[in-house]
Design goal:
The chain is built from four helices and 21 strands. It starts with a helix and ends in an 8-residue tail after the last strand. The chain folds into two domains: about 180 residues; about 130 residues, no CATH class. The chain is mainly beta.
Length: about 325
């Protein structure tokens, strides 16, 4: 093989799977998480910088560009004189082998509920019934350590999942610490729905250990630092609902790691669901099979600050060392 061909052999981004990362979009007009390819070396795939969250590996990754191309014709035979693009559109589909709060939110696209631990005599509800009252956070709490009074600390065990957020007091609009988790156009009754924000929040983690005064968390809360007045409740399950009105919105980064050759990255500043959530079946060794979450997403437009152009997605390629440039 010639030296030129050897360099070309390193030009193909090859990997076993695509790795995915999410970041919340500040709605309605707040910040959008940035990915700058010139600073790609600062993005550690195993420990992504804030506010990016590691979603894990995805399968069957498929991008579709649906932007329409139109032509202006002129002359006696209708020759093409120029082309232009209209109705910018891009879609993205993939399967998620892992199930979790973020994975279900991205695949389902609608409002995600935390099924809070309930009172033993409460009324049963599809998204969780009357919850055990929240435990108030004490001073000294951080994104990885939740300080509670001794009596409240006894209500939690190692391995519990907990939701940490404020009481609902009649607010409207986007709700949830760290990431918009729901939108209320009309206020609910605060007396009946005091736990509503904790029912939807993405500010969750699992208890890794207990000390004499605090719960130590396995993963940092996405809303850090914690705010005085927040409460803690135990989460039993994650629930999404077909037919509800809310649309999740996230920034997405999808990486083909450089296992051999270069690395390819696909950065979507804004993504919303394009189809209702469903699962795909993956056959394992008979009779075992798994259900993977299937995500179908629309890319929403943003404006590139360098030239004012409308953008749906950025595709970047990082050549391997010693690979040919073209």
């Amino acid at each position: 093989m010639s030296n030129a061909n050897a360099k070309r052999s390193q030009m193909a981004p090859a990997a076993r799977a695509v790795r995915a990362y999410l970041a919340p979009v500040g709605r309605p007009s707040g910040p959008i998480a940035a990915f700058d390819p010139a600073a790609e070396g600062q993005f550690d795939l195993d420990s992504p910088p804030e506010p990016w969250l590691d979603l894990g590996w995805v399968e069957n990754f498929q991008r579709t560009a649906a932007t329409k191309y139109e032509a202006l014709r002129g002359g006696p035979v209708g020759n093409i004189t120029l082309q232009y693009r209209t109705q910018p559109e891009a879609r993205l589909e993939f399967d998620l082998p892992a199930w979790g709060k973020l994975q279900m939110a991205l695949a389902g696209g609608t409002q995600m509920m935390n099924a809070l631990a309930t009172q033993p005599t409460g009324q049963l509800q599809g998204s969780g019934g009357e919850a055990i009252p929240a435990s108030p956070l004490q001073s000294g709490s951080t994104g990885t350590s939740l300080v509670l009074t001794t009596d409240q600390l006894a209500l939690f065990n190692v391995s519990d999942i907990v939701a940490v957020d404020a009481d609902y007091t009649g607010q409207t609009g986007y709700l949830g610490a760290g990431a918009p988790a729901a939108y209320l156009a009309a206020a609910l009754d605060p007396g009946t729905h005091v736990d509503y924000i904790r029912r939807v929040t993405f500010n969750i983690s699992r208890v890794a250990a207990k000390t004499s005064s605090a719960l130590t968390l396995a993963q940092p809360l996405i809303a850090n630092p914690v705010v005085p007045g927040m409460g803690v409740q135990r989460v039993i399950a994650f629930v999404d609902r077909e037919g509800s009105s809310f649309f999740q919105e996230w920034s997405g980064l999808f990486v083909v790691p450089a296992d051999s050759g270069g690395r390819a990255c696909f950065y979507y500043p804004r993504l919303q669901v394009a189809a209702s959530g469903h699962e795909t079946r993956q056959e394992l060794a008979a009779p075992l099979f798994s259900h993977m979450l299937h995500a179908s997403l629309h890319a929403l437009p943003t404006t590139d600050a360098n030239d004012g152009e409308t953008v749906l997605c950025y595709r970047s390629y990082f050549p391997a060392k010693c690979a040919a440039a073209y």
